[in-house]
Amino acid sequence: MDSTGHSRVTAGVTRHTSWFMIALLASLLVATAAPAYTVYVTNEKDGTVSIIDSAKLEVVRTVKVGQRPRGITLTKDHRWLLICASDDNAVLVYDARTMELVKSLPSGQDPELFILHPAGKLLYIANEEDNLVTVVDIEKDSVLAEIPVGVEPEGMGISPDGKVLVTTSETTNMAHFIDTATNTTIDNVLVDSRPRFAEFNADGSQVWVSAEIGGTVTVIDAKTRAVITKIAFKIPGMPLDAIQPVGVRITKDGKRAFVALGPSNRVAVIDTATFKVEKYLLVGQRVWQLAFTPDEKLLFTTNGSSNDVSVIDVEKLRVVRSIKVGRYPWGVVVAPF
Amino acid sequence: MGRKSTTQPDRRHFCGGLAYLFPAAAVVLLTGAASALGQAPATPASQSGQTRAAPAGQIRRIAIVLARELRDLPPPLSPLDVRPPDDGVAGARLAINDNNTTGRFLGQEFTLAIVQSSNSAELVADTKKQVDAGASFIVADASAQTLLALSDAMKGRDALILNAGASDDRLREQDCRPNMVHTAPSRSMLADGLAQYLRWKRWQRWFLVYGTEPDDKAFADALRRSATRFGLKIVEERQFSEDVGGRAEGGHEQIQEQIPAFTQRASAYDVLMVADESSRFGEYFPYRTFDPRPVAGTQGLVATSWHPALEQWGATQIQNRFRRLANRPMESLDYDAWVAVRAIGEAATRSKTTAPADLIAYLKSPTFELAAFKGRKLSFRDWDGQLRQPILIGTAKLPVSVSPQAGFLHQFTELDTLGFDKPETNCRAYAP
Q1: Same domain, yes or no, for B37 and B145?
Q2: I want to staple B337 with a disulfide (CB 3.0 to 4.6 A). Which of A243, B32, B88, B196 is the partner?
Q3: Contact B52 A143 (CB under 8 A)
Q4: Is residue A144 located within the same domain as residue A277?
């Protein structure tokens, strides 16, 4: 814009000024259209968190955290950032704004992923090596229960009313439905090989479970636990076994689901009414986890093999940027500030 | 990792000394119940957190036998390569635990009986007794000859042999059997995996050195076949029949003279390929060749089904789990035994049956797939019962690559670029 403006100086000062004003207005409009959120990305191999400004779309800070950080989430009050430091066997609690270490929570062996109860106090942690889900009170720092599940639990989803927890076990190949009032398993649904992620839709009627090696996403009726459908993927020119679904996110209006497809380097966009894939978006290499900005305008993806994060414009269904982060980016969460 | 030469062919070697540890045939029974209990944490929380399983009395048992032939072989050149006494066994035990953790949600229980002997006929007879008593799955770590005897002894029964220890191609080719599948990769798969990597590196001129044992010659044959398949050239071949005197009690002087002398005046080559399955001399080649060349094959850069330092594809989890169980790193034989026992468990979970004939049919069917920490689903080939799987290429400390390499294409699955493919097979007896 600048160079164009300057070349027009000879054509008259007024014209130049008006161009300048338009440019200024336009940039202001862009700025208001993209509020600045804070995006946190765990880098598994570096033991760091990259902090991205969602307006600038660049890394503004890198913070050293524990060993092998993977799962990451924010408390409901957005005060604390919780990180699974898998090789430290701890969940680390950071002040989300200052990134100062507040405390470390008891987590059980090898915590990989976790989910907070909607009420905000209870944290459910998948202990991959112990075949357990550990229930931790994040205020009192105490372990309330350990729930035995299948081999290598990882995916964690919780119903919007907080009554049902779903954990997926990667080697047992089941989605375990757990009653959070009694901490007991109420049902076990067999899914395809190596289930890695469980996501409830906003109205709580369905649970979407991805199977990495099976190459599918199973949609389960949350009430009856019957399988509604199994979504398979096909990308021209891509070997089927490179299509490995991991992270799943569903928009708040329940209309669209985004599925990260691992080493196929694609994110699938699914129409939830028909369960059909609308589009495959090309992102970085080995895409695993996904997170929306609070306004759901942008979706961030962690690309483990290319050490970057892709930014998807959710409305236009276009990849708008890739941002270099640390080595083996794994988890991602976005704060509303 | 201790054992550098984790190639499948090399395994036989590591059975050495076991005969002394277990002088007579022995049967050990690990009940699934005990293993399953060991898996569940004994905390009040877990007791209240009972999982919903099939009601008592509906627990159905799947009995698995691990048949080990204890072989007396010379000690390896390196004391670091002494085989752990529970090689393979620990892998099978880990898989039994995994199966039972899953099984308790479905009312299925898996048991593992270990039958071992240095006498082939005795091993077959003892295994047969287990099958008579209700076992339908035999995971075997035995020689090709013993495997064939086992297969004959199981004729007409609803029993399946899962070969986890023998890489002999003949078991997948002319001597294939309808009642035998193979979780151990064949020599040709290992050689193809290595050849694809060397082709990718453009180390295309090979100097082949092989030993005097039949297994060495078999691995040399596999390398020759791979070279032809992937457009590599064997420019020189020599048989190593010199006596290197076993472990040289720390004396390096003779070896330092002997290996350069043996390898000099070779046609121009890129890589020295060594075929020494029982590790009698191959370990002496790296850094001692006349020309400065890398060494690959059964020593140096090797092809294996597993590497104790693999961390990709969630492998860290199974490595840690294994170490906690066995107090040592996981080796290829452990992995192949783990895969065999897990394959039975997976078939039971998916087919929701414990009837042996149905389970076996499911395991061999194209529907069957197994996630096994190699980034792809594994399944059994329907022409020879071989498990299709990626092959790891590595040195002692780390994996270097994983084959199939990019660019080696196949109309159905790239995994079938490794080993004898359907159009090439000479197997007639196998039926899925």
Answers
A1: yes
A2: B88
A3: no
A4: yes
Q: What is the pLDDT of residues B330-368, one digit of tens each?
A: 999 999 999 999 999 999 999 988 899 999 999 999 999
Helix then strand then coil, % of chain A, to nearest 5: 10, 50, 40
- Decide if B395 is inside a domain: no
Shared-domain flag, residues B33 and B166: yes
* CB-based contact A193 B40, cutoff 8 Å: no
CB of A89 within 8 Å of a chain B CB? The answer is no
Count interface pairs A-B at CB distance under 8 A. 106
Instruction: Give contacts of B 325-384 with A, CB under 8 A.
Output: 342, 346, 349-350, 369-371, 375-377
Question: Which domain does A16 fall in, by range?
Answer: 1-33
**Which residue is it, tokens 């892998």?**
B91
> pTM here?
0.85
Residue B28 neighbours by CB under 8 Å, 6+ apart: B113, B114
> Would you state the structure tokens that stand for residue A39, as one six-digit string?
């995006």
How far, in Å, CA of A30 to CA of B367, rounded? 52
State both tokens at A265. Answer: 């380097």
Taking the Cβ of residue B320 and every Cβ of chain A, the question of whether any pair is shorter than 8 Å is answered with: yes
Which residue's entry shows tokens 């059980």?
A: A108
Beta-bridge mates of residue B275: B210
Angle at B72 between CA B69 and CA B77, to 5 degrees: 125
Q: How far is CA B171 from the centre of its chain?
A: 14
**ipTM for the predicted complex:** 0.80
- Chain A residues whose beta carbon lies within 8 Å of the beta carbon of residue B346: 173
Q: Give the Cα separation of B256 and A133 in Å (integer).
A: 57
- H runs (alpha helix) in B114-263: 120-132, 144-153, 187-201, 214-229, 253-263
Triad B286, B290, B296: Cα angle to 5° = 30
Query: Across the interface, do A184 and B376 touch by the CB < 8 Å criterion?
Result: no
Q: Is residue B1 part of a domain?
A: no
**DSSP percent split of chain B into helix, strand, coil, nearest 5:** 35, 20, 45
DSSP sequence for A272-336 = TTTTEEEEEEE-SSSEEEEEE-TTSSEEEEEETTTTEEEEEETTTTEEEEEEE-SSSEEEEEEE-
A174 → closest Cβ in B39, B105, B346: B105
Q: How far apart are CA B148 and CA B142, in angstroms?
A: 10
> Domain check: are A134 and A28 in the same one?
no
pLDDT band at B88 (very low <50, low <70, confident <90, very high): very high
Q: What is the pLDDT of residues A265-314, one digit of tens each?
A: 999 999 999 999 999 999 999 999 999 999 999 999 999 999 999 999 99
How many beta carbons lie within 10 A of that of residue A53, not counting itself? 15
Which range marks the domain in which residue B219 is found? 188-303
List, as one string, the DSSP characters of A59-101: EEEEEE-SSSEEEEEE-TTS-EEEEEEGGGTEEEEEETTT--E
H or E segment and range at residue B20? helix B18-21
